[in-house]
C-alpha cells in the first residue's frame, strides 16, 4: 500500500509542473499575469512539499527502493518500453533539489520578468524544464531517461533563445543545441550498445549482468584489437555527459546560455541541465566501476575542465559569464569525484553547488535589474551602499563557492580534493594538481566579481546615479532562502551523506572495494566541526584565503597591478580572452568548414553533375539528337524509297551471312 502511495506521489510530482506549463502556455493570456504566476508557483510548491515527504520516507526513514510501471508505451520482440519510476535515495534527493531551486526561480521570476512581454511564455518554459528534469531523474530505464534527457535539451534551446529578437540569443541557443546534439549521438549509441549486450534497457536488469558482460564481452574496434564492451558503453555514455555537463571540449555552449534571462541561467546551472550528466554517471556507477580506463579518462577531462575554465573566469567582464565559467569549473570538480569513484562526494557537491550557484546567479540578476540590465562589472562599483541585502547574499554565495568554512562549499569541495588525492587510478595525480590549483583560482575570480561590483570606486552611468535601489521582496526572498542552505547544508549533511552507515544515499551507488576512497576518508573523518577547526592545517583553506587576498589586492587596493600583468603576460591574457581558441577552432573547422564543404557540393555535385549532366545534359542530348535526326526527314519521296531499298538490302545481307535458308 505504501509503495503504491509513493509511486502515486511521484507521478503527481512529475505532472504538476507539466500541468502548470500547459496552463501558462495555453491559457496564460486569458488568465493574466497574476493568476498565471500564482497557479504555477502553487503547482511547483505543491510538488516540492510532496518531494519532502518522499525524502522523509525514502531517504531519512531508509525505506527500500520502490520501482513501478506507470504505463507501457509498447513492446518490440523481447523489449518492453515502459514509463516506469525508480524511487531510491539518489533519485529522491535529486528531485528535492530540483524542485527547491525551481520553486525559488519561479518566485524570483515574478519580479525579474515583470515588464517582459513574454511573461506567461517564460513561466510555461520554466515549468516544462522542471518537468523534463524530473522525468530524467525518476526514470528506471534508459528509454525514459533519454526522453527527459532530450526534454531538457529542447527546453534549454527555447529558454536560451527566449529573447529571439536578439541575434546573440539565437546564436547562443543554436550553439547549445548543436553542442548537445554531438553529445546525444554518443548517448544514443551507448543505449543501443546496452540493449545489444544486455538485452534490456531496465537499470536493475542491466546492472546485475555487468560483471558477466565485463568479463566475457568485447568489441572489435579495429582489426586484432578488442575493447571491453563495458568500456565502449561507458565511453559513449560519458560523451553524452560531456555535452550536458559541459566538459572540455563540449563546454562551449554553456557560457552562451547567458543570453537567456537570468532566472533560467540559475535553473540551468544549478539544478537541471548541467547536473544531468553528473547524475547519469553516478546512476551508472555499476557500469563505470568495471571500466578503470574510463574512470581515468573522466579524471583527466574533469581536472582539465576545472582548471582551464576557472582561469577563463578570471578575465571576464560580464558578471553572468564569470558565474557561468565558474559553473563549468565546478562541474569539473564533480567529474573528478566521479572518476575517483567518490560518487557520493560528487552528488554532495552537486547538492551544495545547487544552492550557492543559484544564489550567485539570482544575486547577479538582482544587480542587473537595479542597473537596468547592465552586466559589465567595469560599469558598476560601490553598490554595497545601495543594495545591502543583495550584497550580503552574494558574499554568502562567494564564500560557499570559495570553500571557506563553515560555508557549505568547504565540506563538499574539500572532500573531492581529498578523495582524488587518495585515488590510485592513472590520471589521479594530474587531476589532484588541477583541483588544488582550482582551490586558489575559484576565490580569485568570484571575489574579483564581488569587489568590482559592490566595492571599489562607483562607475555607474550618469543616468543611473541616484536611481539605483534594492530589489523588491519577491526577488530578495529567494536570495535569503538560498543563502540559508548555502551556509549550513554542508556541515549538516557531510556526515549523513558521506560517512554515516548507512549513508543518505543508501545502496544507490555501487563502488568496487579497490576503488573505495570514501571508505578511507571515513576512517580519517571526526565530524564536520572538527574538520572546520582543523582547516588551518588544510592546504586548500590557505589556497582559498590566498585567492581572496589576491583578488582584493589586484582589484580593490592596487588595481594598477592588473595592468602590469596584462602588459607583461599579454600573450597568456589573450589566450584566456580567446578561451583557448575553442570557439575559433569550432568556427573555422566546423562552421566555416561546413559552409565550404556545402559550397563544394553545390558547385560540383549540384551545378556540374546534377544540373550539368543530368538535367541540362539530358536536355542537350535530346536537342542534339533531334537536330541530327531532322536531317533524315527531307520530305522527298525518292529519299524515303532509297532508304527503304537500302534497309531491305541490309536485312537480306544480314540474313544470308547469319546462315540463310537451307537449299
- In quaternary terms, these chains amount to single chain
Give the uncertain stretches in residue-range form.
none
The secondary structure category is mainly alpha
Helix content: over 70%
Q: How do the strands line up in the largest sheet?
A: 1-2
Average of per-residue pLDDT values: 88
Annotation field: number of helices: 25
Our estimate of the beta-strand percent is under 5%
Write the layout of secondary structure elements.
Layout: H1 2-60, E1 66-76, E2 79-87, H2 89-112, H3 119-138, H4 142-160, H5 167-198, H6 203-207, H7 210-216, E3 218-222, E4 225-228, H8 229-244, H9 262-270, H10 273-283, H11 285-288, H12 292-313, H13 319-339, H14 343-370, H15 388-401, H16 408-422, H17 428-454, H18 473-499, H19 517-524, H20 528-533, H21 539-557, H22 560-568, H23 570-577, H24 582-629, H25 637-657
Antiparallel strand pairs: 1-2, 3-4
Structure description:
The radius of gyration is 31 Å and the shape is globular. Helix 4 (142-160) runs antiparallel to helix 5 (167-198) and helix 10 packs parallel to helix 13. The protein is 72% helix and 4% strand. Among the domains are: 352-577, no CATH class; 578-624; 633-663, no CATH class. The termini are far apart. It has 25 helices and four strands.
Amino acid at each position: 500500500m505504501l509503495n503504491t502511495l509513493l509511486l502515486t506521489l511521484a507521478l503527481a510530482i512529475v505532472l504538476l509542473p507539466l500541468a502548470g506549463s500547459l496552463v501558462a502556455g495555453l491559457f496564460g493570456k486569458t488568465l493574466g499575469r497574476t493568476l498565471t504566476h500564482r497557479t504555477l508557483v502553487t503547482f511547483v510548491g505543491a510538488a516540492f512539499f510532496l518531494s519532502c515527504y518522499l525524502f522523509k520516507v525514502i531517504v531519512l526513514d531508509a525505506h527500500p527502493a520502490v520501482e513501478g510501471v506507470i504505463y507501457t508505451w509498447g513492446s518490440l520482440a523481447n523489449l518492453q518500453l515502459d514509463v516506469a519510476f525508480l524511487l531510491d535515495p539518489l533519485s529522491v534527493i535529486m528531485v528535492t533539489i530540483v524542485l527547491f531551486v525551481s520553486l525559488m526561480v519561479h518566485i524570483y521570476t515574478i519580479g525579474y520578468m515583470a515588464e517582459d512581454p513574454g511573461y506567461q511564455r517564460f513561466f510555461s518554459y520554466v515549468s516544462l524544464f522542471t518537468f523534463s528534469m524530473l522525468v530524467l531523474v525518476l526514470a528506471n530505464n534508459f528509454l525514459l531517461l533519454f526522453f527527459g534527457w532530450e526534454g531538457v535539451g529542447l527546453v534549454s534551446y527555447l529558454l536560451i533563445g527566449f529573447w529571439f529578437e536578439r541575434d546573440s540569443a539565437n546564436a547562443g541557443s543554436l550553439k547549445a543545441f548543436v553542442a548537445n546534439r554531438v553529445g546525444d549521438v554518443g548517448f544514443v549509441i551507448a543505449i543501443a550498445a546496452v540493449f545489444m549486450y544486455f538485452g534490456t534497457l531496465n537499470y536493475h536488469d542491466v546492472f546485475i549482468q555487468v560483471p558477466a558482460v565485463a568479463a566475457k564481452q568485447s568489441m572489435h574496434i579495429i582489426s586484432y584489437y578488442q575493447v571491453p564492451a563495458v568500456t565502449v558503453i561507458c565511453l559513449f555514455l560519458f560523451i553524452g555527459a560531456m555535452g550536458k555537463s559541459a566538459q572540455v571540449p563540449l563546454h562551449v555552449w554553456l557560457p552562451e546560455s547567458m543570453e537567456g534571462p537570468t532566472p533560467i541561467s540559475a535553473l540551468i546551472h544549478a539544478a537541471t541541465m548541467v547536473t544531468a550528466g553528473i547524475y547519469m554517471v553516478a546512476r551508472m556507477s555499476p557500469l563505470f566501476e568495471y571500466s578503470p580506463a574510463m574512470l581515468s579518462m573522466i579524471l583527466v577531462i574533469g581536472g582539465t575542465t576545472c582548471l582551464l575554465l576557472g582561469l577563463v573566469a578570471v578575465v571576464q567582464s560580464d558578471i553572468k559569464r564569470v558565474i557561468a565559467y565558474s559553473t563549468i569549473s565546478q562541474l569539473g570538480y564533480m567529474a573528478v569525484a566521479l572518476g575517483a569513484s567518490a560518487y557520493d562526494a560528487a552528488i554532495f557537491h552537486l547538492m551544495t553547488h545547487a544552492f550557492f550557484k543559484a544564489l550567485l546567479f539570482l544575486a547577479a540578476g538582482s544587480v542587473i535589474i537595479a542597473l537596468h540590465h547592465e552586466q559589465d562589472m567595469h560599469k558598476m562599483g560601490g553598490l554595497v551602499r545601495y543594495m545591502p541585502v543583495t550584497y550580503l547574499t552574494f558574499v554568502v554565495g562567494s564564500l560557499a563557492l570559495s570553500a571557506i568554512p563553515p560555508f557549505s562549499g568547504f565540506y563538499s569541495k574539500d572532500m573531492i580534493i581529498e578523495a582524488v588525492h587518495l585515488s590510485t587510478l592513472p590520471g589521479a595525480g594530474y587531476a589532484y594538481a588541477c583541483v588544488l590549483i582550482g582551490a586558489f583560482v575559484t576565490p580569485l575570480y568570484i571575489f574579483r566579481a564581488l569587489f568590482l561590483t559592490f566595492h571599489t570606486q562607483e562607475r555607474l552611468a550618469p543616468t543611473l546615479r541616484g536611481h539605483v535601489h534594492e530589489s523588491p521582496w519577491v526577488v530578495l526572498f529567494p536570495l535569503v532562502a538560498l543563502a540559508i542552505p548555502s551556509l549550513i547544508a554542508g556541515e549538516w549533511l557531510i556526515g549523513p551523506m558521506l560517512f554515516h552507515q548507512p549513508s543518505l544515499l543508501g545502496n544507490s551507488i555501487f563502488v568496487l572495494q579497490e576503488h573505495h576512497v570514501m571508505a578511507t576518508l571515513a576512517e580519517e573523518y571526526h565530524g564536520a566541526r572538527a574538520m572546520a577547526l582543523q582547516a588551518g592545517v588544510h592546504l586548500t583553506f590557505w589556497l582559498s584565503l590566498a585567492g581572496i587576498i589576491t583578488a582584493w589586492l589586484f582589484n580593490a587596493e592596487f588595481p594598477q597591478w592588473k595592468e602590469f600583468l596584462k602588459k607583461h603576460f599579454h600573450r597568456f591574457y589573450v589566450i584566456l580572452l580567446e578561451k583557448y581558441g575553442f570557439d575559433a577552432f569550432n568556427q573555422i573547422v566546423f562552421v566555416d568548414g561546413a559552409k565550404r564543404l556545402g559550397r563544394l557540393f553545390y558547385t560540383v555535385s549540384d551545378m556540374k553533375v546534377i544540373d550539368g549532366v543530368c538535367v541540362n545534359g539530358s536536355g542537350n542530348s535530346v536537342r542534339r539528337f533531334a537536330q541530327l535526326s531532322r536531317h533524315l526527314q527531307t520530305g522527298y519521296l525518292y529519299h524515303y524509297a532509297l532508304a527503304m531499298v537500302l534497309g531491305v538490302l541490309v536485312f537480306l545481307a544480314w540474313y544470308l551471312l547469319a546462315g540463310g535458308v537451307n537449299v
